[in-house]
Design a protein that fits this description.
seven-stranded parallel sheet; single chain; alpha/beta; globular; about 35% helix; about 240 residues; 6 helices
């Protein structure tokens, strides 16, 4: 049976590594990003699609195209997210006075709302025979595992993502039976997202995108499919909600 894989946020470092890993395993990969990704579009067995606007209308149209082509997805990984945006002056907050409407709106738009809209529509094209949908989350989005404070917008937007995935898993399971949703903490990966924060990370805890992709695929494949939703980290260990 053909393994159809969708990677959302395909121009990012982790996504690119996932595309290469799945492709090397013989999967048919569908890659989506807002930015143009010339290199990805030229890779054999990768169907690249640029969605300049990842909103309800454009995501709905893309998923409808998959349905019209009778494409059923076995695996989805949604990698969209951001921690800082230098051009807009958005950085993780250190104190309450740093919180701003602009930053909060941006965090929730990318880290919570876009993945939520994907989940809304993907339920119509996921396989009923053993499919998996994974969203890249973050340990700092855990409400119970928060003893440091700070990073208000990023933490809250990832917590919102976790709640949406957990809630959606109930309906996904009811409609698709053999489906599993996962929130995945990849650790600190050597990509643009973590660049300004790498100086305090031990060398052995700063992962390459290639290592991260292999860990994700390996650990997700071993999860208990009878459980509708999981929240795990790069080492396969459970992260508390």
């Amino acid at each position: 049976m053909e393994n159809n894989v969708l990677i959302v946020g395909a121009s990012g470092g982790i996504a690119s590594a996932l595309i290469e890993q799945y492709r090397s395993e013989g999967a048919k990969v569908f890659a989506v990003s807002r930015a143009a990704a010339t290199e990805i579009s030229q890779i054999q067995s990768v169907s690249y699609h640029q969605l300049a606007e990842q909103d309800d209308k454009h995501i709905s149209e893309f998923v409808a195209q998959l349905a019209e082509q009778q494409i059923v997805l076995n695996t989805v990984v949604i990698t969209t997210g951001f921690l800082h945006r230098e051009n807009d002056g958005i950085h993780p907050e250190k104190r309450l006075e740093d919180v701003s409407e602009q930053a909060l709106a941006a965090y929730f738009a990318t880290n919570s709302i876009i993945p939520a809209i994907w989940l809304k529509h993907l339920v119509n094209v996921m396989s009923k025979e053993g499919s998996t949908l994974t969203c890249l989350s973050a340990r700092v989005g855990s409400i119970s595992d928060n003893g440091l404070g700070g990073w208000y917008g990023y933490r809250a937007s990832k917590a919102a993502l976790n709640m949406f995935v957990k809630t959606a898993s109930v309906e996904y399971k009811r409609r698709l039976k053999d489906v599993m949703l996962v929130c995945y903490h990849p650790g600190t990966v050597d990509t643009g997202l973590s660049k300004p924060f790498q100086k305090n990370v031990a060398a052995k805890k700063l992962f390459t995108a290639q290592f991260t992709a292999k860990q994700l695929i390996q650990h997700v494949s071993k999860l208990d499919r009878n459980q509708a939703c999981h929240f795990i980290d790069w080492n396969g260990e459970v992260v508390t909600w």
